[in-house]
Specification:
246 residues, alpha/beta, OB fold (Dihydrolipoamide Acetyltransferase, E2P), 5-stranded parallel β-sheet, 5-stranded antiparallel β-sheet, 31% helix
């Protein structure tokens, strides 16, 4: 049985709130609606007075928008599903680490997919809480070559902690505190390292799954690596990351 998602609906139009609440009651029984808000001020009160798992958030509201609300909340510990009639907000939603976004009028199938996505994340987080993180992939040793001015250099994959995008370049950080800059995109490096236990956690970061020391819930979540470096996890990548652990 799925875990219960404690949720609120933030939407300025009562009709839209009623439709969403009705859909959730019929098709997403694991969602428990603790309250409704029609503006940012009411939403802040609900968020601060409840431990929430999920917020259904309309993008456009009187006297502000969804991004203003998230900024005021600060340290976000819940997942967010944006609801909007404006398609241009989709990219903004992903940049703000929304787990999912729904276009109005709401598709029941898309609503179910969004709730299922958040449910999977929360179930995995709950299962891993207070557990020692054990990657399903053990050290998968391999070697890759990176270009240099005089030829190429060979790196052992087990020594790579993470890679960071920098336009058409990629910074490769090693467990020896060394850093390499290569004239290849992160997407190119990702293809080379996928078979060696590396996972994309953000548009800018690719990490060695065996280098993860801890995971922290939050707006998108963060991982701490063996070198104590904390890196952000995009909500859209969170389920993939968590699937690598037992």
């Amino acid at each position: 049985m799925s875990i219960t998602l404690k949720s609120i609906i933030v939407e300025d139009e009562k009709t839209s709130r009623d439709i969403l609440k009705n859909y959730l009651g019929k098709y997403c029984p694991n969602v428990q609606i603790l309250g409704e808000a029609e503006n940012i001020e009411e939403a802040l009160v609900l968020i601060r007075n409840n431990e929430l798992d999920l917020v259904f958030l309309d993008v456009e509201m009187p006297y502000g928008n969804a991004f203003d609300l998230l900024e005021k909340v600060g340290d976000v510990t819940f997942e967010t599903i944006f609801v909007t009639a404006y398609n241009q907000y989709a990219i903004d939603a992903l940049n703000q680490h929304a787990a999912y976004y729904l276009l109005k009028p709401i598709s029941i199938d898309e609503l179910i997919k969004g709730v299922d996505f958040v449910t999977q994340i929360k179930e995995k987080e709950q299962a891993l809480q207070n557990e020692v993180l054990k990657p399903k992939i053990t050290e998968n040793q391999g070697k890759i070559t990176i270009p240099t001015q005089s030829g190429f250099e060979v790196l052992e994959t087990k020594n790579i902690l993470y890679c960071q995008a920098d336009d058409n370049y990629t910074h490769i950080f090693l467990n020896s505190d060394e850093q390499k800059l290569v004239s290849k995109t992160l997407g190119f490096i990702e293809k080379k390292l996928t078979d060696y236990g590396f996972v994309r956690i953000h548009k800018s970061y690719l990490i060695n799954i065996n280098a993860v020391q801890s995971y922290h819930k939050g707006k998108g979540g963060t991982v701490e690596l063996k070198n104590k470096k904390s890196l952000p996890v995009a909500s859209s990548k969170k389920a993939i990351l968590l699937s690598f652990f037992k």
